[in-house]
Amino acid sequence: MIIRKKEHWFKMLFVWHGSVLPGLLPRLFLLFILSLGVVYLRGTIFSFKVPLNPAPLTLFGFVLALFLGFRNNASYERFWEGRKLWGALLNTARSLTRQALTLKNLKESSVSVSYFIQLLDAFIFALKHQLRGTDAYEDLKNRLHEDHLKTVAASKYKPAVIMRLLAEWVQHAKDEDHIDSIQQGRFDENFDKLSDILGGCERIVSTPIPYSYRVLLHRTVYIYCFLLPFGLVDSLGWFTPLIVVFVAYTFVAFEAIADEIEEPFGTEANDLALNSMCVMIDETIHEMAGQKIAISPKMTQNIID
């Protein structure tokens, strides 16, 4: 995800990186060439004058804008839900860390608070990789014991397995009388929150916007853009290509943005900055434990100032 400081309005007119414009240029160039051909032929195809005028296109464009607004709202709702889930993950991780750190008589115990924090850390990175469909091994190998690493690496749903390991840690602490049933219940409440966060993220990934709806809107946008030159050529003449490209950029860009943020956990410029969020959670829980971690530049590669 691109994170920028607020820029001057004039400078924003020329922002390139992070804009959807680079991916749209071939399509806009095609529409520009088509519009030039329509103007040159004065809106005729094989000696047939296409009987279009701006009135029906204006009405149709208004309806299309409403549908695009609904499509963007649906996509942004998925994006914002993903962000809220990761915000809840930060809060829950802090709560679990605080609970573990305030337990008494654990220094001489076989139950290591430090390893509990490593397990929690591993859950966060495993979740990121599961959502992105990438390999989590490199991030997990320094956070899990060898026997646990083998178990987690062989599993399909790694965050769920790590949650089980966290619960086993709490049960071990209970068996050694470091916590009572009430404290164990409070841990379980936060584990339930982790489970809800995991399920919510999986729901977003596994339930895209219905494909037939996307196809309908996609076809409608491009049919409208290809018909637009025929409706404007008589009134605008050689200005038609410029106006067509500008209108097409608005409609096509809205569709492209909706497609991009529909899957908020990816690695595109406008997706959620999961790398930086993982690093932030990693830092805060280790700081609570009085530890410092070395942050590799690769861990923050999707933050671009």
Account of the protein in words:
With 305 residues, the chain is mostly helical. 70% of the residues lie in helices and 1% in strands. The protein is built from 11 helices and 2 strands, in the order H-H-E-E-H-H-H-H-H-H-H-H-H. Helix 3 (54-101) runs antiparallel to helix 4 (113-132).
SSE string, helices as H and strands as E: HHEEHHHHHHHHH
Structural class call reads: mainly alpha
Principal-axis shape: elongated
Rounded Rg: 27 Å
Q: Strand order, main sheet: write it out.
A: 1-2
Strand element count: 2
Average pLDDT figure: 86
Strand content: under 5%
**Counting H and I runs of at least 4 residues, what is the number of helices?**
11
Helix content: 55-70%
How many strands, which pairing sense, and closed or not: the largest β-sheet?
A: 2 strands, antiparallel
Ends: how far apart?
Answer: 10 Å
User: Could you list the spans in which at least 5 consecutive residues all have pLDDT below 50?
Assistant: 296-305
